[in-house]
Amino acid sequence: MTTHRPDIRPARPFFSSGPCAKHRGWTTERLHDAVLGRSHRSRPGMAKLKAVIDRSASLLGIPTDYRAFIVPASDTGAVELAMWSLLGPRIVDAFVWDTFGAEWMIDAVQQLQIETRVLRAEFGELPDLAKANPAHDSVFVWNGTTSGVCAPDGKWIADDREGLTICDATSAIFAMELPWPKLDATAFSWQKGLGSEAAHGMLVLSPRAIERLELHTPSWPLPKIFRVKKDGKFNAGLFEGETLNTPSMLAVEDYLDALGWAESIGGLPALLARTDRNFSALSRWVKESRWLTFMASDERYRSPSSVCLKIIEPWFAGLAPADQRATVRRFADLLEDEGIAFDVAGHRTAPPGLRIWCGPTVENDEIEALTPWLDWGWEQIRPR
User: Fold this and answer.
1) What is the pLDDT of residue 165?
2) Strands of 34-146, DSSP E
3) Over the Cα atoms of the chain, what is R_g?
């Protein structure tokens, strides 16, 4: 445990799990080419929007017969659009291992009122994925942003499944490998893996998902921002840069800059390698720590991007939950006041603990410099 103030400070204090750190070197000057004061339907506006779709697909290695498009309301809007448009014909398997998986389960059970089989695990654990029924549709997060638990692979998803898979991939995308042939509707936002601006999301559809959209008419009303069909067919203009509402062209430019940075460092392999290096650096420290450990009990499904940690000191465990949360808040505030780390308290719905983003826009030297300060900060607030 470090009791003295460390000599080296992180070059940047951005460890929030969303919105996440910009890439090093980012400035507002990089947005000078934004199409501002003009219609997003203008030729330059449409060119920017089409570039977002094409360059995202290329960077992520999305199969050529899959289609991506831009949606409102970030990852939330993308997941909601997929669920409200695709679900209904089959029983739903809702896999829940974090806060957001629980939200999508509520949508299926309480809002859409579809027959739903809930497979749930506590924070830090993973449900029995082997119970996935290939005849059912399924909804799940790939990476539990609030629990630090991710799907270990796609082997549990049947190749010959009859149902569709709807995957919330927002804190996995650009940070870990995804098995695209296993995923039929994949949602993500711009503000996690690449640290771009929030408010916009993307949805990636397989040919089977597009077929479902065209053949299935939901029994419930769909708001305008969920309507993706035109004359009974999927509106193909969405794949060319048309949008369901007016996008922020400033946010579009910022995402294009993030894509450009990712391309310049070596694309997806480089992004995954950076995440792995960051996670390895943090893991080495956690494994030697006497006061905290991973929330995910099994290393096979520990998230390398949104790393959730629980405090294991007996005095902390003896506190009431409200006092535990207040202690974590005081610790996070201390680090913020010192300019060392911003927003490292765990999610408000998760057990009291820490959450540290290790995604690709964080630099490895920043993680290395952070860990002694975490020890120092905890020493300052622990009882004497």
Assistant:
1) 98
2) 67-72, 92-96, 116-120, 137-141, 143-144
3) 21
The one-letter amino acid at 79: V
Two structure tokens written together for 70: 């831009």
Query: Please, are residues 165 and 33 in contact by the beta-carbon 8 Å criterion?
Result: no
The pLDDT value given to residue 4: 87
pLDDT digits (tens, 9 = 90+) for 81-96: 999 999 999 999 999 9
* Phi, psi for 217 (deg, rounded to 5): -115, 115
Tokens of 172: 């996995």
Residue 288: helix, strand or coil by DSSP? Answer: helix
Strand, coil or helix: 118 = strand
Query: Do 224 and 244 form a contact (C-beta atoms < 8 A)?
Result: yes
Structure token digits, residue 239: 């794949």
Residues 221, 158: Cα–Cα separation, whole Å? 31
Mapped onto helix, strand or coil, the DSSP state of residue 312 is coil
Q: What distances in angstroms separate CA 192 from CA 18, 62, 105, one per listed residue? A: 6, 18, 22
Q: How confident is the model at residue 2 (pLDDT cuts 50, 70, 90)?
A: low
